[in-house]
Specification:
Blueprint (H helix, E strand, L loop, with lengths): L20 H28 L6 H21 L3 H6 L1 H14 L6 E4 L2 E6 L4 E2 L1 H19 L1 H6 L5 H16 L3 H17 L4 H8 L2 H10 L2 H9 L12 H13 L24 H37 L3 H26 L17 H32 L2 H8 L5 H6 L1
Antiparallel strand pairs: 1-2, 2-3
Helix pairs in contact: 1-2, 1-13, 2-15, 4-5, 5-8, 5-14, 5-15, 7-8, 8-14, 12-13, 13-14, 13-15, 14-15
């Protein structure tokens, strides 16, 4: 499973790819923790809504199964296809974000238009847009490497694309995802070689836009002020955060025991989605928190490490894709954990691979599959370099399907 090539067989001594095992273990570990914690945190919610105790768990397992199919498909797909159709995928992303504003097709839930009505289910386009944005920026960085590294104008196009996405997200509104898109875009462009001074100058106009977006609505302003002093309004604006802090505080070192959370019993809102980390802290304690954070650190660390290796050996697209997906997972996890700990205002972002969700789970699994595919192609290129050092030139050329000239063959 960990060393196949999707398109062609290779010689026994030829270059072979392999998926990064530590990364795969970390991703499986996060998904496994998610199944256990969704089962524990959602029973009270499902029972209060008269849906059956395991309603959310069953749906979570269905979404995870679909996500595993998406993961397998992504792991078997050559990254060159994503690179080739990056622009077309970006057009699709714009179309999906606009479609949420179409009456009867776009769905308004809790005052926000973030979902598409697919009759049998709903779909949140921003989850797919995250992956599409990463592949588009990676493609741009490969095609315009010199321009990005040396010219201010080389940064205009990716920043403009991200800016358009942000504007459409703010119109929904989805401030959390908009912030995530900005952060990942700037980080990817910087890792692509852009000069920090260029990024600073280009980011200046975004400051007033973000300020207006953050303070333009009363409920957002309350979020910004309440998280600083949640105990001043424990039964009003600070209710979510105070319940989350009490849950984490009750867990202490080893937790109160799996399934024994009290705060999830209709006290902690969104216990199986946005605030599932608080339930982890209460039931599994600091040990569970360290386990989850360690798995995220391992997954993100391996992704960034192999991304750097890919750039160094010339697999730039695979390297940038690994950078982008790793950063997307890391930043979303940081925001989710920060919200639960009261370090950040409430954003409405789920904990990747752990929180209950349909679109988020399936598309996060797809991102994980693309990340694993990137590690496969990077490891294949690393192995090819090693083969080049060990085998005669004629054998390496035969593996690559290249015919040597007679003089070169004799020399080999």
């Amino acid at each position: 499973m960990f060393d196949f090539d999707s398109n062609q067989a290779t010689r026994r001594q030829g270059p072979r790819g392999s998926f990064d095992l530590p990364l795969l273990v970390a991703l499986i570990g996060l998904a496994s923790v998610g199944v256990v914690m969704v089962a524990s945190s959602s029973i009270a919610v499902a029972d209060s809504e008269h849906k059956g105790a395991f309603y959310f768990l069953i749906h979570h397992l269905v979404f995870l199964s679909l996500g595993l199919v998406a993961t397998a498909f992504a792991m078997r797909t050559e990254l060159k296809l994503f690179e080739k159709y990056a622009f077309h995928l970006m057009l699709l992303a714009f179309a999906m974000l606009l479609a949420v504003f179409i009456p009867h097709f776009g769905m308004r839930i809790n005052g926000a238009r973030r979902w598409l009505n697919l009759l049998v289910t709903s779909f949140q386009p921003v989850e797919a847009v995250k992956l599409i944005l990463v592949t588009y920026i990676a493609s741009y960085l490969v095609r315009h490497r010199e321009s990005v590294e040396t010219r201010f104008l080389g940064l205009i196009k990716p920043i403009m694309v991200a800016g358009i996405i942000v504007l459409m997200l703010l119109a929904q509104p989805d401030f959390g995802s908009a912030t995530l898109v900005i952060a990942v875009t700037i980080a990817m462009v910087w890792l692509g070689g852009a000069r920090p001074i260029f990024l600073f100058i280009m980011g200046l106009p975004l400051m007033p836009l973000l300020y207006i977006a953050a303070t333009g609505e009363s409920y957002r302003m309350k979020r910004l002020t309440t998280f600083l002093h949640p105990w001043d309004h424990p039964f009003d604006d600070g209710f979510q955060l105070t319940q989350s802090l009490m849950a984490i505080g009750r867990g202490e070192w080893t937790g109160v025991g799996l399934g024994s959370s009290v705060l999830k019993l209709s006290y902690l809102p969104e216990a199986h989605t946005d605030f599932i980390f608080a339930v982890i802290g209460e039931e599994l304690g600091l040990a569970g928190v360290v386990l989850v954070m360690g798995l995220f650190a391992l997954a993100v660390g391996r992704g960034l490490y192999l991304g750097l290796k890919g750039v160094e050996i010339g697999q730039r697209f695979a390297g940038y894709v690994a950078f982008g997906i790793s950063l997307m997972l890391a930043m979303q996890a940081i925001v989710s954990v920060g919200v639960n700990l009261g370090a950040l205002p409430t954003k409405g972002l789920t904990l990747p691979l752990i929180s209950y969700g349909g679109s988020s789970m399936v598309l996060t699994c797809a991102m994980a599959g693309v990340l694993l595919r990137a590690t496969f192609e990077i490891n294949r290129a690393l192995d090819a370099r090693e083969v080049t050092r060990r085998l005669p030139a004629a054998v390496v050329a035969a593996d690559a399907g290249i015919a040597l000239k007679p003089r070169e063959a004799v020399a080999a």
